[in-house]
Amino acid sequence: xxxxxxxxxxxxxxxxxxxxxxxxxxxxxxxxxxxxxxxxxxxxxxxxxxxxxxxxxxxxxxxxxxxxxxxxxxxxxxxxxxxxxxxxxxxxxxxxxxxxxxxxxxxxxxxxxxxxxxxxxxxxxxxxxxxxxxxxxxxxxxxxxxxxxxxxxxxxxxxxxxxxxxxxxxxxxxxxxxxxxxxxxxxxxxxxxxx
Length: 195
Description:
By secondary structure, the chain is mainly alpha-helical.
């Protein structure tokens, strides 16, 4: 089975099985916080092409216009339900739609904001040869990334420390991607989230 066939099959099954949960989350978000249930963000995908990434909205409406593009520790824009969605990673469920559309894969480098992709070195840009993923080794290692981004110099820490470390893991994956590696990363993701 090819990676793309695996992605399509697993995403379709996930959307089918999780549709009651997703409908409940849409209602919960709409009832508890004004604004749309889905958040759309421009991210950079395969070959450097921008695409629209879908997530359940975990912050106040228009949060991206009223603060940084990266969520930091203690960000006051996060809604009460948003804290739950982020902690459980349920905010990522709509990305199965991105996988079906071909924008993303189940496993691959996490899609980045265009502002930060512009800072990639030529070597780091190698990750753009792959479809971005819902999860990755870097996602597992940096499951609680927000906690690392504290203080006034959070962006410097992200650009100089966190982003290069995550990209190093993504480059390691890019050197030898396989369906078996994807299954292992998916399993590690489930275990990490359940903890």
